[in-house]
Amino acid sequence: MLSTSSSATSSLISSNHGEEEEENDPFAIVDEVHQDDTYADVRELLEKLSSQDRSRYASHDDDNHNANKTTTYPDYDNNNNNESSRKQQHIRQPKNHAIELPIFAAYTTYFGYAVLILCGHIRDLFAKIIGQGRYLRDTQNSPYPSDNLRWYAPLLSSWENFYTRRLYHRIQDCFNRPIASNPGAQIHVLERVSDDGNKTMTLTTGQGRVARACLNLGSYNYLGFADDWKVTCGKDVLNSLKDLPISTSSCRNEFGTTKLHREVEQVVARFLHKEDALALNMGFNTNCTTIPALTSRGDLLISDELNHTSIVNGARASGAAIRIFRHNDTKHLEDILRQAIIMGRPRTRRPWNKIMVIVEGIYSMEGEYCDLSNVVKVCKKFGAYIYLDEAHSIGAMGPSGRGCAEYCGVDTADIDIMMGTFTKSFGAMGGYIAGSKDVISFLRRRCAGSAYHNSLSPAVCQQVISSFKVVMGEDGTNIGKKKIQALRDNSNYFRMRLQDMGLHVLGHYDSPIMPVMLYNPTKIAAFSRECFKRGLAVVVVGFPAVPILESRARFCISAGHTRKQLDRALEEIEDVADILKLRYKSSTFG
Amino acid sequence: MTEQNELERELRVLNFCNFDFLGFQTSDALRQASTDALNKYGCGSCGPRGFYGTIDAHLQIEEEISKFCHTDQAILYSDGASTCSSTIAAFAKRGDVLVVDEGVYEPLSTGVYLSRANVHWFRHNDVDDLERVLKELQATDKKLGRKPGAQRRFIVVEGLYKNLGTIAPLREIIALKHKYHYRLILDESFSFGTLGKTGRGALEEHNKRPMYDAEITTIALENSLGSIGGVTVGNEEVVDHQRLSGAGYCYSASAPPFTASAAVASLRLLKSQPELVQRLQANIRYTYKCLDKHKNSITHKAKLVVTSDSRSPIVVLQLERDSAYESAIMSGIMRECLHRGVAIVASTGQDASKSSHLRTELAPCIRITVSALHTKNDTDKMVNTLIDSAILVTSRYSLNLE
Predict the structure, then answer these.
(1) For the packed helices A437-446 and A283-294, what is the interaxial angle rounded to 10 degrees?
(2) Do the bridges between strand A385-389 and strand A355-360 make them parallel or antiparallel, or are there none, so unpaired?
(3) Does some domain include residue B2?
(4) pLDDT (tens digit, 9 = 90+) per residue, A526-578?
(5) Chain A contacts of B59, Cβ < 8 Å?
(6) Is residue A484 within 8 angstroms of chain B, CB to CB?
(7) Boundaries of each Aminotransferase class I/classII large domain copy (chain B) (predicted)?
(8) Is residue B145 part of a domain?
C-alpha cells in the first residue's frame, strides 16, 4: 500500500536526521572558532531561537513523533476517503512566517495608492489641458519620426508607464543609488539631486561629487568577500590577469574555455558533492538557458509561487507546461503532483514526459528558506525531478556554507539539479549548474548559455576559485569558517533585535535576509530617506517586485559587519521605526 | 578524448576563432584599467543595480558609450546575450507585432519568444520578403479596421549576422520601416567596432542616424571591446523604461565594476585609434582576396564556398552541396587546422530544436574571424592551412560528395 511505503521513506529520512544531530551536531564548532565571542551575552538565546526555527521549518523534528499522522496519504482505491482527505488538504496552510496583514495597514495602504493614482491622473489631465508637463511627450515638434502618434503606437503605454511616472518617480531617489566604493560593510553613496521633480536624478557636481559614508545593509555580500578582498582573493585575481584576457570573446563550446573555467567547475562539483558542474557567465542567464535546455513541450514544471524572475523567464522560454504551488506549501505541491500524474497532459491525457519541481534555497524577498526535506520527500514519492536554485543560500547557509541542502539535512544526491550564483556570497559573477555527469555534459552541448553565449571572464573564474577555497578551508586558514559563523551570528542577532522592536520581520533564523514590513507606499520612501540621513544604506522594495500591499524594507547581513556597527544600525532603525510607526507586532496602528 | 589531450599539450596556434576583432583582449590599457578597478572596487558588485549595485564605473561606461554612439542614453547589462533578450521583451508585449529576420542569433530569438508578441518572420536579408510581410500586415489592418497606432510594431535585425557573416541591407530595411511605420530594433553586437569608418557599426556603414532610423540598438561589449556585458542605446524614453522593465537589468546582479572600466578603456582606444578599424577592414579585404584567389582549389577541390559578406570580419564557408557528413567534415577541417597551428571554428550547425528558439536550421559551416592584429603572413598561413586541411578532409568523404 502507498501509505506504508511513504511512511517508510519518511522514517528513513527522519532517522538520517537523528543521526546527524546526535553524532555530530553541525553547530558544535561554535565554541572552537569563537574564543572571543562577541555575542557571548546573548549566545544562549540566539542558539535557542535558531534551533527552534530550524526544527520547525527545516528538519521538522516536532513532526517526527507523529510521523504517521502527517505523512499518511489518502488511499487511492477508496474514492470517498480520497475526496474527503483531498478537501482537507485544500485548506490553506498558514504561511511560514505567520504574519498577518493588519487591517489598519491594509486600508491605509489601499487609501495611499488610491490617492497617488488619483493625483497622478489629475496631473496627467491638467498636463493634457494646459499642454505642458514634464511627462508630456511633445509629439508635435518631436524630432523622432516614431513619436508621430498617427502612425505609431506610443512606445510606452498604459498602467506600467503610469506607475513609473506617477508613483515610482516620486520616490526614485531611494533606488539605484550609485556608490563609489567596493560594496563592503561601509560604502560611499553618491549624493544625487533632481531639478525636475524627481523625473531624472543627476549626481551632484560642483566641487567634485559628494559621497556619504553609509553602513551597507543592502548588498548580497554575505560572506564579506568584498570587505577583505585584497587579503583573501585579490592577489590571485590580479595574477590571473597577467596571462589571461578579461574576456575570452567566445563561447564555452568554441574557444572560450580556459584552464580556470575547468578548475571552477571542478571546485564547485567538489564543494557540492556532485559529479560535475557547468559555470556560466551570468546567474540570471543560468536559469534562463538551462531550464529550456532541460525541459520542453510535453514536460511539466512545478514552480514555487515566489520563484525568481529568471526561473519564470526560463520556464516560459522552455515551452513546457507550468503549474504554480503556494509558497513552501508541500501539501499543495503534492496535490498538484498527484493531479498532474492522474490527469496527464491537457486534452490528450497522455502522461507527462517528465515533471520537474523548481524551488529556491532562500527566497530573496521573504528571507525564508525552502522546506527542502519535505519537497524532496514529496518529489521522491512521485518521481519528480528537483531543481534547486541556491542563488542566495549557497555559501550563506549550513555549517560549512554548502547551502540549503546541507542546512535542511538533505543529501545533495537527492537533488537532481543544483543551481547557484557566484555573485552573492562569493563576490564574483556568473552562475553554475551542478548535477550528474550525464546531465552536465548534455547541458554543455545544449544549453544556450554554454553553446552560444560568451564565457565567464577568467579573472572572475579566479575570484570564484579563490573564494571557494577560502570557504572550504583549502587555503590553509580558518577564515572561511569564521566568515560562515560570523554571518550566522550577525544575522540571528540582527533578526532577534528587530523582532524585539516589535517590527513585522519576515523569514527564519539562520537566513541572512530579513525583510521588515512597511505596508504603506509612503513609508517606502520615508524609511529609505530617514535611514539614509542617518548613514544607513537600506533596500526598500515595492510593487512590482512584491505584492502591492506588502511593501517592505530588506536587510542583508554580511559577515563583514561588526556587532558595533549592527548595534548602531539597530539604534537608528529603532528611531526610524518610532517616527514611521512601524511596530505592527506590538500595535495594530504601528 | 583527443581534444582534451590536445588542449593539455598547450598548442600555440594562430587565433582566427574568437570575436576579439580589434585585438583589445591583450591590450595593456585594458589590463591596467581592470587592475585599477579591481584594486578600488574588488571583484563583484554584490547586488542588482537598484540596490547599491550601481557603481560609478557603470555610470561612466553608460555615459561614454552613449556619447560615442550619438544617442541620448545607454543602459548597461552584465551579459551581452541577456541584453538582447531583455530589451526585446521589455518593449514588445502580448498583442504587439515583431517582424524578425530568420537569420537572427539565439539571444534575439529568445527575446522574441519571451515577448509573447505576434511574430512574423521574413527570409534572411530578403527585402522583398520583408515588404511582402509588411504589406500582408497592412492588409490585415485594413480588413479589421485597425488603426496603425493600435499596436507597437518592431522590425528586428542584426547589423552583422553572427551565424552567417552577412550584413543587413539597412538602407532598404530602414526605408521600409519608415514607409510602413515600424520601429527598428537593431543588434550591433558584432557590427560595432567592425563596420563603419570609425567603427560605430552598421548604422554608420549605411549613413543612418541612431535614434531616428533605429530606435533601439543593442551592443555587446564582449566582442570588439574585449570586455564583458552589453548595452542598449537609444533616447531617454527607451533607456529609462528598461531600468524598471529590463528583466536582465532589474533582477540580476550588476556587472563587476572592472569589466565596465575595461570597456571604458577599450572604448577610449577605439576613439583615439580609428586606424585600428581601418586596419581590421584592410585585413578583411585581404582575407577575402586570398580566399578569392584560391577559389579554384576551395570550390573545386574542397567543395567549399564563401557565403559571408565581403565586408564582414566573420568569414563563413559552407559546403557547396548538402551532404549527410557535413558536420563531420567541418569538425574534421577544424581539427586538422588546429593540428597545423590555426584555430578556426567549425559550427556543427544548429538544429531549430526545442532547446533553442532559432527559426531556421543552420547548415554546418566553417567560421573564421578576422582581427586587426593579424598580419598578411598570418592570413596567408591561415588560408593555406585551411585549403590544405579542407582538401584533405573532404577527399576522405569525396565518395559521398559526388
Answers:
(1) 100
(2) parallel
(3) no
(4) 999 999 999 999 999 988 788 888 899 999 999 999 999 999 999 999 999 99
(5) 178, 203
(6) no
(7) 14-385
(8) yes
User: What are the angstrom distances between the C-alpha of B73 and each of A25, A36, A169, B238, B244?
Assistant: 55, 52, 18, 9, 15
The crossing angle, in degrees rounded to 10, of helices B80-91 and B236-245 is 100
DSSP string covering B143-159: HHT--GGGS-EEEEEES
**Strands of the sheet with B314-319, listed across from one edge:** B304-306, B314-319, B365-369, B345-347
Local structure of residue A361 (DSSP, 8 states) = S
Pick from A211, A217, A134: nearest CA to A180:
A211
For B144, the grid coordinates are 479589421
Dihedrals φ, ψ of B330, to 5°?
-60, -45
Cα–Cα dist A578/A587, whole Å: 12
CB proximity A101 to B under 8 Å: no
Q: Which of A437, A454, A472 is the last residue of a domain?
A: A472
Give me the residue label for grid cell 582573493. Answer: A233
First to last CA, chain B: 32
Cβ–Cβ below 8 Å for A429 and B238: no
Distance spanning both ends of chain A, measured CA to CA:
53
Q: Is A442 on the interface with B (CB under 8 A)?
A: no
Q: Which of B272, B292, B310 marks a domain boundary?
A: B272
Domain boundary among A420, A439, A472: A472
Residue B4 covered by a domain: no
- Can you give the CATH number for the domain in which B174 is found? 3.40.640.10
Same domain, B214 and B361: no
**Looking at the structure, do residues A464 and A483 belong to the same domain, yes or no?**
no
Mutation to test the B interface, candidates A204, A261, A284, A360, most B Cβ within 10 Å:
A284
DSSP, residue by residue, B54-93: EEHHHHHHHHHHHHHTT-SEEEEES-HHHHHHHHHHHH--
**Are residues B208 and B135 both part of a single domain?**
yes
Same domain? A326 vs A358: yes
CA distance A216 to A569: 10
Mark which residues 413-432 of A lie under 8 Å from B by CB.
421-424, 426-429
Count of structural domains within chain A: 2
CB B214 within 8 A of CB B184: yes
User: Least CA distance to B43: which residue of chain A?
Assistant: A428
**Same domain? A310 vs A364:** yes
Confidence of residue B399 (pLDDT cuts 50, 70, 90): low
Q: For every residue of A462-522, which 3-state class applies, written as one string?
A: HHHHHHHHHHHCCCCCCHHHHHHHHHHHHHHHHHHHHHHCCCCECCCCCCCEEEEEEECHH
Q: Domain check: are B257 and B115 in the same one?
A: yes
| β-strand partners of B168 | none
For residue A305, how many other CB atoms are within 10 A of its CB?
12
- Domain shared by A336 and A297, yes or no: yes
How confident is the model over A202-258, as pLDDT tens digits?
887 666 678 889 999 999 999 999 888 888 888 899 998 888 888 888 888 888 888
Which residues form the domain of A568?
A: 192-224+479-580
Nearest-angstrom CA–CA distance, B214 and B217:
7
Give me A200's grid cell.
531624472
- The residue range of the domain holding B325 is 275-401
- What residues does A213 pair with on adjacent strands? A188
**What is the Cα–Cα distance from A519 to A502, expressed in whole angstroms?**
15
Q: How does pLDDT run across A426-464, given as a tens digit for each residue?
A: 989 999 999 999 999 999 988 888 888 899 999 999 999
